[in-house]
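agent> fetching stored inputs for the magnesium ion docking request
agent> found them:
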Amino acid sequence: MATKASRSAARLMMAPAVILLLGWMLVPLTMTIWFSFRSYLPLRGGDLGAAGFDNYVRFISSSAFWPSIQTTLILVGSVLVITVVFGTLLALLLDQPMWGQGVVRILVIAPFFVMPTVSALVWKNMFMDPTNGLFAHLWRFFGAEPVSWLSDASLPSIVMIVSWQWLPFATLILLTAVQSLDGEQLEAAEMDGATKLKRFFFIILPHLSRAITIVILIQTIFLLSIFAEIFVTTGGAFGTRTLTYLIFQRVLESQNIGLGSAGGVYAIILANIVAIFLMRIVGKNLDN
Amino acid sequence: MGRITLDKITKKFGDVEVIPPLDLTIEDGEFVVFVGPSGCGKSTLLRLIAGLEDVSGGEIRIDGSDATMVPPAKRGLAMVFQSYALYPHMSVRKNIAFPLRMAGMSPAEQDRRITAAADVLNLTDYLDRRPGQLSGGQRQRVAIGRAIVREPAAFLFDEPLSNLDAALRVGMRLEISELHKRLQTTMIYVTHDQVEAMTMADKIVVLRAGLIEQVGSPLELYRAPRNLFVAGFIGSPKMNLIDGAAADKHDCKTIGIRPEHISVSPESGDWKGTVGVSEHLGSDTFFHVTCEGIAAPLTVRVGGEVDVKYGDTIWLRPGPEQIHRFDQNGLRIA
Amino acid sequence: MARDVTSRRKLINTAAAWAVGLVIFFPILWTFLTSFKSEAQAIAAPPLFLNFDWTLENYGVVMERSNYARFLWNSILIAGGSTILGLLVAVPAAWSMAFVPSRRTKDILLWMLSTKMLPAVGVLYPIYLLFIQLGLLDSRAGLIIVMMLINLPIIVWMLYTYFREIPVDILEAARMDGASLKSEILYVLTPMAIPGIASTMLLNFILAWNEAFWTLNLTSVDAAPLTAFIASYSSPEGLFFAKLSAASTMAIAPILILGWFSQKQLVRGLTFGAVK
Ligand SMILES: Nc1ncnc2c1ncn2[C@@H]1O[C@H](COP(=O)(O)OP(=O)(O)O)[C@@H](O)[C@H]1O
Ligand SMILES: [Mg+2]
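agent> prediction call returned; pasting tokens
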């Protein structure tokens, strides 16, 4: 299947995809890097000249930077822990024989298909609203004072919303992995006298480790750029300003393009660190 | 017409030379079989002829004109794949029609040819089925049907029978031979099974590691194998190859004697031996006999049933006219 | 595991799984129910579950007031257009990589994947600026292009993994049968890959439909899709629970239905074939 003719045809047919993606990557990236070294303020006259590393230094030394990193890490970390732990448990549960498995699967997967703006708004208003939200009703029912979720417990609230959105993803992938586990292996372990708990830790968990790694990496990449959920709930207030949101504010709200671009470069570097690990795994998978 | 000439063609995959320079002429109407052990380059050679791979050097001529750079679609050759390679989403009729459709043939002519082909191949009742609903033998026939409707200059077969069970294989073997007799079109047939080669070929090309070891009719190869490799490869059970004292007597490095050319006697003969396992096929019996002074056990073939048991002592005598002699380099001594 | 499970055991599993499933699904169910309440009943204390006066009024109000149809149409055009455009670019590329692999194929695939990981916010301003310069801001064409580009790696990858399952022999047979490259792809590869292509389209459509960074930042009025329509409820209007619910239900219902059909392929698509 490899004649010169087919190889040159192949190159030609790959060209549009490669060129488009190359353009999509290089043009904006180059511009971002260029802006990050300029003092660029569209509202105050545009490009005010070279800035050296000023923007980089200023972005890091601004009082908002470290809190935003902290917020990002807490958000990403908590969501990962919640989705992986509950996703694993849920996958194991769904793998058990039961009635109506297909329907339960559908129920569990549904949140993944809900657009981020919808899930954020529904949670914000109908569940977390301090007067009319369902949680408020529930709290009052137990005689407790309703919580102003999005101002008093803002970050945990967002963690909760995002976890709800991503739990289906983790569950679905882990369920696929659980189902690919060889039943005979478990039976052999049972014959060898391994208890249920031991079977989980010595056979099931190692079998899932690859899938868990993939879930963690892919979710990390998506979670690092969470935007709409914050945009429609807190607008970055009450300690929910992530790195992504901070950059968004610098660029579009305060129109400090140079500063925002320097932040963008940081975000790109951060995402690439995660991406490298993901690509290793995916790449290995390509070989066989 | 279908005269195919290979002129010093070579094939490299990266740095590995799979086909060293090779010359071969296939005459119009010939049934040529490429045979050799797995991995020796048979499929590669066939794909070079088909145009599915580029040659690394040399020239391929079809009916005298240079086809080396001609794409597969334009060579006028048809191929039957080991996996049948039927189009799973098309009915049998559409499968067979595909090459005709690609050639832009009129629907009436397409129909005529499909009907004729289906008739020859006993596919008339299956024309509206999908390949997935057919048995292995039927799929094979569809693949052949798809090849014959085009009336190609030559047919290329790549181990077409290896996915069939033993009984079907024998039947299809006959059908393909019959097809060749009827169409009189050049056929190039690749197999690792020497029985297929012997039974079907006008001309056998024995390959080893991309090199042609010998070219000839089945009987030429049987009677006069050019070297030890061909001697061991052609014929079933395999020819006995004997080194040492027994060979020295014949002034050579190695002698070869086919199992069917050894006679057995309870009292006298050239070699005395002990009977090991015997295989009773009814029509024939194969003995494995360990002889004094000969390293490997010899295989002996005797017609019908013979009353010899495990551990018996017997005498063997090779037919004097039927001993093949080979020199140091493994080449036949005439 | 060929062992009989006691029905008691199965009953417990069933109960547990259904309970968890319903809890997870509850927000969607609650939204759906609330969309049929009057505003007063929507905030009634204690909350009403099924015992309320069902009404379609909210749907009417939402459609009337916010020109829902235009947002819906934009969503369909953007998701659909980017999917079709992406497919046109990706099918040939995936064909090349699956059937004429070279030493660089793997690197190209991984590189394509890496473009997917570029954080959008990092290139927000350049894209914004380019859009202004090219007159693409708040245009459907602009969003179609962006959606196509951000999902192209996923489309190429999914198609690649599906194509690799198609035996090369069949394509070679087509070539021997006199098919040109175009015929080979059109009449042989594409029909055989229909299931894979369909699920790729579905997933891509869903991803584009739900995308809420570029759609929020690059549209204002003309090209705004449903994500932006919902976001417009983020302040005071959101307090009208019933209307918010009706709007939300209309925004997610079509995709929820599509999504349920694609759940099997989802895993492959989102893990780039690393989990099957
Ligand atoms: N596309 C290829 N790339 C690299 N090596 C190949 C390729 N195709 C075949 N080979 C090598 O060429 C040799 C001959 O292969 P093949 O012609 O398929 O053998 P046969 O059909 O006789 O079993 C084998 O060693 C095989 O590994
Ligand atoms: Mg072969």
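agent> quick read of the result: The longest helix of chain B spans residues 166-183.
agent> awaiting further instructions
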